Amino acid sequence: MKKTILFIGLIAAFFVLASCSQTSYPREEVDSFAKCLTENGVVEYGAFWCPNCAKQKKMFGSSYQYINYVECDARGENPQPELCLAKNVNKYPDWEFADGSRLEGVQPFEVLAQKSGCTAPTPTA
Known about the structure:
Elements (H helix, E strand, L loop, with lengths): L1 H19 L6 H13 L3 E4 L4 H10 L8 E3 L9 H6 L7 E3 L5 E3 L4 H8 L9
Parallel strand pairs: 1-2
Antiparallel strand pairs: 1-3, 3-4
């Protein structure tokens, strides 16, 4: 019984520590990256209630203000559900690139950079 409790405790501690670690980036680089995505025609489609959209937004932090974001839920702020229907947005977030290609789900900066031609921010140590 003690081994089971210890095992459960170790698993819980692992998940707590794993959720606390987050890569950080210089704010100026993230600002430039977000601006470049928008300048290069990248659009993110999402919904205000979407947990993965919240994760993606958290990655950008305050730089998210520079992302070309389209709200797909009619109940959200500045909604454009008709555009989302026309674009066949099925999952959130849905990233659309200037060449018409798309990626669904939370995307790391490196993937967004590769698809957009922008320079990804460099992680700080």
